[in-house]
Amino acid sequence: MNKNVIRSITAIAVLFCLLWLIGLGWAVGEYYAGKPEKVPEAKVSKKVENKKGLTIVALGDSLTRGTGDETGKGYVGDLIDEIKDKTKRPVQLTNLGIIGQRSDQLRSQVQETEVGRQIQKADIVLVTIGGNDLFRGGQGLSDFKTDEIATIEKKYLDNLKYIFDQIRKYNSNANVFFIGLYNPFIELDQGKEMSKVVRQWNYDSAEVSAIYPKIVFVPTFDLFELRVNDYLYTDKFHPNSKGYRLIAERVASLLTW
Fold first, then answer.
1. What are the phi and psi torsion angles at 216 (to 5°)?
2. Cα 196 to chain center, whole Å?
3. What one-character-per-residue DSSP string does 79-106 give?
4. Which tens digit of pLDDT belongs to each residue from 124-167?
5. Which of 82, 98, 194, 217 meets the CB 3.0–4.6 Å disulfide criterion with 252?
6. Alpha-carbon gap, residue 27 to 40, rounded angstroms
């Protein structure tokens, strides 16, 4: 093969190579010209704490007020501390508890316009009631076997239904936690008999609670049953700080965070 033929073949090869490179460059240019500019990926931020606050309304008697708690918190204060610690959410509390309040008095209270307005805003409603109806400052110990107890309980349950009806009238979405009774007199001579009465009241109260959506009966009888004196204030009736803490923990265990 002479030199002229070799040169011709080489020239043709170079030409084809140049044409291929030009075509490749054109194709790549067309591809990127028609492709939208890549948007930088958004940086994934760390989990943002939920700052939406919770509104809690507490109703009831001296247990709602925290009588007997040396810290002054009561179960309501302990529960709020628990909620803040677990959720990092701010909590607004309206404590409407009244020392010595009975169910008929709470029935009247929930009819008040301002009380209804507070319940309407609530995410959670806490209720303690019934202890003063049953125990009546210790009088319940002397007549717990009489028919009077049955009459008192019937009135109490009627009041409880009305109270729950009113709460649901004002607010159909709030979670309502109704705290059951414990027996502070369990270690007295009539303590075991009184325990039967308390358990029956709790059972009937739980049945009423179960009628309503999102109203939860919270048992406390078992918390105090074995070591009642360890968890009572010096008046031997109200819980001390340890007793209130037990109640708060029981309620907290039922919350969904």
1. -110, 125
2. 30
3. HHHHHHHHH---EEEEE---TT--HHHH
4. 999 999 999 999 865 555 566 667 889 999 999 999 999 999 99
5. 82
6. 25
CA 25 from centre of chain: 65
CA dihedral 151, 68, 54, 220 (to 10 degrees): -50
Q: Per-residue pLDDT tens for 19-71? A: 444 454 544 444 444 444 443 443 433 434 445 899 999 999 999 999 999 99
Q: What is the CB neighbour count within 10 angstroms for residue 67?
A: 19
**Terminus-to-terminus CA distance in the chain, angstroms?**
89
Give all strands of the β-sheet with 54-60 in edge-to-edge order.
Answer: 91-95, 54-60, 124-128, 175-179, 215-218
119 half-sphere exposure, CB direction, 13 A CA radius: 25
Backbone angles phi, psi at 46, to 5 degrees: -70, 155
User: Hey, what amino acid is at 73?
Assistant: K
The 3-state DSSP class for residue 48 equals coil
Residue 224's contacts (CB-CB under 8 Å, 6 or more residues apart) are: 182, 183, 184, 186, 231, 232, 239, 243, 246
pLDDT digits (tens, 9 = 90+) for 199-233: 999 999 999 999 999 999 999 999 999 999 999 99
222/202 Cα distance (integer angstroms): 11
Closest residue by Cα to residue 141 from 179, 220, 198: 198
Q: Are 134 and 195 in contact (CB under 8 A)?
A: no
